[in-house]
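Records of this kind hold a single protein each, on a pair of labelled lines. Below, a sample record shows both lines together.
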Amino acid sequence: MERPLAPHEAAIAAAGVRLVLHCEVIGELDEGVLSRALARLVACYPLLAGAITAPDERGRRLVRIHPADPGPVLGCGVDLQEEINAPLTWEQGPLLRVTLLREPNRQGRSRLVMTLPRAFADAMSYQALHRRLWSFYADLAAGRHVAAAPVQPVLGPALDDLLAARFPARELRDFVAERARVDTESPPALLPAHASLNGGPGTDPSFRVIGIDVDADRCERLVQRAHDADLTVNALVSGILLTSLRTLFPARGPMRLLCTTAVDMRRRLSPPIPTEVLQSAATTTSIRLMVDDHAHPVDVGRDLDARLRADLESGAAAMELAAFPYMLDQHPPSLVITNVGTIAEPVLPAGLRIGDVRLAPLGHVPMLFAVVSRYRGRLTVDLVYSRAWYTDLQIDEVARTARATLQAAAG
């Protein structure tokens, strides 16, 4: 079974963008049971054992699933930073990498790290995959029978194809041309790529993730603050992130920032794509905002929220992915924000629990990513970047400002 990669899948795969999900496991984990649960997971999702072919003479790449493909095996390690930077072999397969980290001096705690190509997973389907793995673990640990029928479709159609059918080609080209005109007249500000070399990536190929955590009590107050301002939590946190980023630019007065916001298309398609189907079913919408050097996060969040709703109603969010082949040369974003929502806690046997779950898109691209999530009442913002483009000093400054502003907003 195989099909060509769609334009957005091919671009993401060519950039080597991986989507990492990692969780902290509290309690004594049985590695043998976990390995058996992983085998059941691959039986449900044969794509996990698949591969991405090398480009052919026309530059075309395929995603391929073969019944004889060996599935992923449970690996072992000790360091999260080392694991998220591990070299991947998607051309040989498998597409899923799973590693259990036994971190020194952390008795009774371990970390499970799952890595997939971003081209074939999004936050919703990845969370469903994660929950199913632990569901298998719980059943196997209890000696219960585990059925592992493949989730259909095993290899779904690309989101590009599903959305492109909605719009005439001319409409898509006009849409892209108008975006290009706006950005040419008033180019959005970009974080200087201080780690780059001669306009390309620098010498340090590693990724880094900075976590900003808000405890359950402060998170509850932050939610109330958003509601009091008639905002979603996503809009308020986005306003905080954008005003924090704005502090890195010395210019006074209003400055245009381009915020790319992830949009889940699953429930917006007809028929909807079930959460359990492993697929990249998220698009983005690019929102251009004027942000003053003294802008208030609530005001920026309100502006972003209004524009996001307008893009969803007008179809602009769907058009961005449908027009992907035309958009490769568009102006890059100042910031990419992905809100994965509230992550459900997996069901585990007595004596085990998942203390934390995090997701991060990692790729050597000149973009700063912010992933917002909530788990067990807490709120987390992970700032994700490539050291081939940005220095730790730059992103540490964004993180310090964002952390302080989040704490202040939460009272």
